[in-house]
């Protein structure tokens, strides 16, 4: 099937606080967006749509074309919106007519490997369902009411969700068309439209760079091991 990946990179990065929109902050001499796209372009896909802040569209195009190499005709860059959901909708509008499967991926998950991307595509192809990569929750999770601990949640029925999340294109488009309120992620939006969602195994490398400590972790992971 023809696969498009929408890479949402239009956020401001308030929690990272690096003085620039998060996707354009350097991990090494390459940006978060560029690292993400290097991995995206190692996966099987037909189109990559990057959603960037309006004033960074040119910079995003440069990053995307460098990551694409000889496949630069696969790249589209569009301006995002003020919420992630609006940014995804903007990306979706730029997906080519013959694309059958759409993945939505956070640029902030810069180190998510190509094999994770391919695993999500394979699962969408196999099931026709929405697909979310998940990891088990490692901490004991408490229910709290202010200072008071009111209970413990059974960890075995919880998982933490990552991206890329994958969908049949027709299902994702319909779900976005009918979506009323803001949803926490694309799979919640698609589930709200009545479609089943499956999980596949996530990847620790697909953690989201949110805080300065996360950026430091990414820097450590990509730096060469000491001799
Ligand atoms: N995103 C986007 N458009 C928005 C908000 C977020 O494209 N209006 C993207 C971000 O660029 C990021 C992904 O959605 O790749 C996940 O969002 P998050 O980690 O929350 O990034 P930011 O919103 O930039 O960070 P913060 O919430 O700390 O401001
Ligand atoms: Mg945000």
Automatic annotation (TrEMBL):
The record marks 15, 22 as: Transition state stabilizer. GO terms for molecular function: 2-C-methyl-D-erythritol 2,4-cyclodiphosphate synthase activity; 2-C-methyl-D-erythritol 4-phosphate cytidylyltransferase activity; metal ion binding. It catalyses: 4-CDP-2-C-methyl-D-erythritol 2-phosphate = 2-C-methyl-D-erythritol 2,4-cyclic diphosphate + CMP; 2-C-methyl-D-erythritol 4-phosphate + CTP + H(+) = 4-CDP-2-C-methyl-D-erythritol + diphosphate. Its cofactor is a divalent metal cation. Pathway: Isoprenoid biosynthesis; isopentenyl diphosphate biosynthesis via DXP pathway; isopentenyl diphosphate from 1-deoxy-D-xylulose 5-phosphate: step 4/6; Isoprenoid biosynthesis; isopentenyl diphosphate biosynthesis via DXP pathway; isopentenyl diphosphate from 1-deoxy-D-xylulose 5-phosphate: step 2/6. The record marks 155, 208 as: Positions MEP for the nucleophilic attack. Its EC number is 2.7.7.60, 4.6.1.12. The keyword Nucleotidyltransferase applies. Residues 1-227 are annotated as: 2-C-methyl-D-erythritol 4-phosphate cytidylyltransferase. One of its GO terms (biological process) is isopentenyl diphosphate biosynthetic process, methylerythritol 4-phosphate pathway. Keywords: Isoprene biosynthesis, Lyase, Metal-binding, Multifunctional enzyme, Nucleotidyltransferase, Transferase. The keyword Transcription does not apply. It comes from the Bacteria. In the C-terminal section; belongs to the IspF family. In the N-terminal section; belongs to the IspD/TarI cytidylyltransferase family. IspD subfamily. Bifunctional enzyme that catalyzes the formation of 4-diphosphocytidyl-2-C-methyl-D-erythritol from CTP and 2-C-methyl-D-erythritol 4-phosphate (MEP) (IspD), and catalyzes the conversion of 4-diphosphocytidyl-2-C-methyl-D-erythritol 2-phosphate (CDP-ME2P) to 2-C-methyl-D-erythritol 2,4-cyclodiphosphate (ME-CPP) with a corresponding release of cytidine 5-monophosphate (CMP) (IspF). This is Bifunctional enzyme IspD/IspF. The lineage of its organism: Bacteria, Bacillati, Actinomycetota, Actinomycetes, Micrococcales. The gene is ispDF. The chain holds residues 8 to 234 of 393 of the full protein.
């Amino acid at each position: 099937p023809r696969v498009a990946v929408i890479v949402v990179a239009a956020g401001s990065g308030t929690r990272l606080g690096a003085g620039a929109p998060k996707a354009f902050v350097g991990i090494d001499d390459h940006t978060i967006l560029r690292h993400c796209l290097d991995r995206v372009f190692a996966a099987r896909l037909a189109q990559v749509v990057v959603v960037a802040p309006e004033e960074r569209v040119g910079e995003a195009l440069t990053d995307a074309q460098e990551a694409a190499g000889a496949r630069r005709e696969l790249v589209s860059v569009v301006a995002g919106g003020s919420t992630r959901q609006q940014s995804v909708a903007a990306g979706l509008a730029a997906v080519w007519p013959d694309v059958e499967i759409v993945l939505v991926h956070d640029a902030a998950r810069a180190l998510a490997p190509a094999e994770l991307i391919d695993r999500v595509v394979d699962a969408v192809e196999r099931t026709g369902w929405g697909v979310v990569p998940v990891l088990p929750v490692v901490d004991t999770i408490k229910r709290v009411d202010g200072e008071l601990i009111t209970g413990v949640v059974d960890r075995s029925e919880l998982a933490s969700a990552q991206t890329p999340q994958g969908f049949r294109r027709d299902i994702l488009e319909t779900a976005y068309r009918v979506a009323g309120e803001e949803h926490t992620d694309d799979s919640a939006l698609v589930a709200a439209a009545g479609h089943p969602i499956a999980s596949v195994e996530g990847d620790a490398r697909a953690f989201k760079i949110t805080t300065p400590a996360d950026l430091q972790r990414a820097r450590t992971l990509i730096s060469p091991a000491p001799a």
